[in-house]
Specification:
globular, alpha+beta
């Protein structure tokens, strides 16, 4: 009983700290090793923090994150004060990659997914889960499944928003093609949360790094859906 009371006190202090800070960020456990896995030719990297509250239009960007994500934001892992860590990866003086991770709530606990993206195109080069405790983990971590995301961009996710509502059987919907390759697993809650994490990653990178490169895709999708009464 005494140990239980101590545990409850510790948990209470932890959640008080979380509530006071407002959010929990996502960083690599072992940056040097993890970045070497993603980019074997890496010679150096830079680690920087991005936060909405440090941008002049931070509140607007935060509202746009929710809008483009298409779902409510988690108060612990997706708060306005959440710190986001961006890793820029170099080979000598050449920038060869941008790496960024996010927390998303899953049924089996928090899911941590990191993307490695092309610094020129914003496309996915690789991704991995730093934390994923789920019956769906085997399918999500499958190498062949992860390779299907290579080259996928935020623009493809915005196009998917249109296709899934207007042309669900479209053969040019890259995102749906990837999801279909997972079979029935795609309907699992942690599978959906993980795909949401990938999309969230790309949205944040578009805001923080890529100067809203894919914003025209979002606006065009909204216009097209509006014209269809969606």
């Amino acid at each position: 009983m005494k140990s239980l009371k101590i545990l409850l006190v510790v948990m209470g202090l932890f959640w008080h700290a979380v509530a006071s800070y407002g959010a929990i960020g996502c960083t690599l456990n072992n940056p040097a090793q993890d970045l070497k896995f993603l980019f074997p030719e890496v010679t150096s990297f830079k680690e920087e923090i991005r936060e909405f509250r440090h941008f002049p239009d931070g509140q607007k960007l935060f509202a746009e994150l929710k809008e483009r994500l298409g779902s409510d934001l988690d108060p612990v892992y997706e708060a306005y004060e959440t710190p986001y860590t961006v890793y820029t990866v170099f080979k000598g003086n050449e920038l060869i990659g941008i790496v960024h991770g996010v927390n998303v709530p899953g049924r089996g606990g928090v899911i941590q997914v990191f993307l490695a993206t092309d610094p020129k195109t914003g496309g996915i080069e690789n991704f991995f889960f730093q934390r994923l405790e789920s019956p769906e983990a085997k399918a999500l971590k499958n190498r062949d499944f992860r390779k299907r995301f290579t080259g996928l961009t935020l623009g493809d996710f915005y196009k998917h928003d249109y296709f899934r509502k207007v042309e669900p059987d479209s053969k040019v919907d890259k995102v749906n093609e990837i999801l279909d390759s997972a079979g029935e697993q795609r309907h699992g809650p942690d599978f959906a949360a993980s795909v949401r994490g990938i999309r969230k990653n790309l949205i944040l990178l578009d805001m923080f790094i890529y100067n809203r490169l894919f914003e025209p895709f979002y606006k065009r999708t909204v216009e097209l859906l509006s014209s269809k009464g969606q």
